[in-house]
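Workshop exercise sheet. Pairs work together: one partner reads the sequence aloud, the other fills in the structure field after running the prediction. Swap roles for the next sheet.
Pair: D.N. / O.F.
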Amino acid sequence: MSQSFDLIVIGGGPGGYVAAIRAAQLGFKTACVEKRGTLGGTCLNVGCIPSKALLTASHHYESAGHDLARFGVKVDGVGLDLAAMMGHKDKVVSDNTKGIEFLFKKNKVTYVAGAGRLAGGGLVDVSLNAGGTEQLSAKHILIATGSDVLGLPGLEIDEKKILSSTGALALPNVPKSLAVIGAGVIGLELGSVWRRLGAEVTVVEYLDRILPPFDAEVAKQAQRLLAKQGLNFKLSRKVTAAKSGKAGVTLTTEAAAGGSPEDILAECVLVAVGRKPYVDGLGLDKAGVELTPKGFVKVDGHFQSSVPGVYAIGDVIGGAMLAHKAEDEGMALAEHLAGKPGHVNYDAIPSVVYTWPEIACVGRNEEELKAAGIAYKTGKFPFTANGRARAMGESDGFVKLLADARTDRVLGVHIVGPHAGDLIAEAVLAMEFAASSEDIARTCHAHPALGEALKEAALAVDGRAVHI
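Structure field:
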């Protein structure tokens, strides 16, 4: 006999578990089906959380060995205990995933450990991790299965020499050399981790720049700073073949436009060229759920698929593949099902790269505004002129604010600098409330604080920055 629910969520990642909890808070009898065996999806298990744990730990290691002396702190005999560092990462992951299980119990969400598959007519068949099968039924079914690693033809990921992000988070030893294919967020973050720990890192990118979604000026500055730290960049190059041997992996590359062959030998290779929607084994075709040409679940403005009662959110529907975007969609979907005005403002979704310095943005960049023919004004302020940044010894980078030339409304904010991921929150809130640069400029900011750089950038829009 099948169990009956108001809502079944397939996928326990950030979008899925948040949707399940919010739906339960709104009075829905809710179940969440997750096959991994732990909740939290890619983000908590093999993505956002473990990578940030390693980024933080490796930053401390590098600071102890190279940076603390300038503050008068002498540290002798700094050593690396990689096993302990990995243990810290694993504990952080475990604590977070167990935290979601607690929240499920607190909110009376039924957690079903197994692989869910649409069976039509509001039914979901689950192959249980513990063995056997179970059939669930619900008025509403939500697909929140996220995304998976996107591979490259001719490069078979074995998680030993040729790695995905998952393998790069669990290397047992620091490789002497690491080649990273892809200069996006994942490639730069994990490349930074292993560079700090002692690997020689070479980043190969097909495009002529790093971080293609980001503002070009910000990306250029970030590349300069990362190169200064020791990352090697080979831009406008494509990988055409890979051959594993005793010495490591030999990548055959050539110019993106063709010709100019060059081999790169590295002990390990990280494939970080993007992610694809996870739709395998869900029974979408038999259930009649329509996909886009790129394989994402096609949904309407309320996240409903082509099948009434079947919804989808997060990476599996495309757009920005970010955990917080999926969370907001999960909240909006649950509230919509409850008759409330659930909504996601896609113009105010922040993006962050947790290298050091961090890189963060929200809204449109200059290239997008120019392409759209929108007249805008620019305000910039460098962290070299910020007292707190100087005191921290972290004065690289700047804040750039873009405002509509006619209305002064903030159209985008772009930051490369210390704690950019935290600073961007103020800009997101400003854009959510349709603030002008004048609004930010006239808002009192604590002194001395990094946030003053955003205020000065807002002042600079009107040519009246004080400290430059």
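Discussion prompt: The mean pLDDT is 97. What would you look at next?
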